[in-house]
Specification:
single chain; 155 residues; alpha+beta; Arc Repressor Mutant, subunit A; 2 domains; 5 helices; 4 strands; elongated
């Protein structure tokens, strides 16, 4: 069971989430701790699972993947093995940026970053048409990436 976070942890997490490049001394100045104390807290927050990954946010349009496509996927069988297999294929696809197993009219929501519609068509053939457990899918093409974030809100 992870140790609960306190107010200092929350401020530290918010600062790291806003800019993970800040030095531990700069983080410490923001939250009123020494660099060593920041180091210990960040290690604990990572070990406890509060920080799952530290990464850079890249500009897909500058790196050859300007098109965002959202797919709603409905499966034929929701039994564990077929569902796990289709989900594993989605997770293994590098163009699938996000994969959600959801309730409602479909079973999965996928967010793709692709070069163009031709690449998405090829991926849909591999991931959807070729999989007998995919019953149907619906494609939504994003006209604009108005807001893209994985930031966790802090009250």
């Amino acid at each position: 069971m992870p140790e609960p976070v306190d107010d200092v942890d929350r401020r530290l997490l918010a600062a790291v989430q806003a800019d993970a490049r800040l030095s531990q001394a700069a983080l410490g100045a923001r939250v009123g701790l020494s660099a060593a104390a920041v180091n210990r807290r960040l290690r604990r927050l990572g070990d406890d699972g509060y920080i799952t990954k530290t990464t850079a946010v890249l500009a897909p349009e500058l790196l050859g993947s300007p098109l965002t496509v959202i797919a709603q996927v409905e499966v034929e069988s929701e039994q564990a093995d077929p569902l796990d297999q289709v989900q594993a294929a989605f997770v293994a696809c590098p163009q699938v940026q996000q994969c959600y197993n959801v309730t409602g009219d479909c079973d999965f929501i996928l967010v793709f970053l692709v070069r163009d519609m031709h690449q998405y068509l090829e991926l849909s053939r591999q991931l959807f048409y070729a999989d007998p457990n995919v019953k149907r899918f619906k494609t939504l093409v994003a006209l604009d990436r108005t807001k893209v974030t994985l930031d966790v809100p802090f009250d």
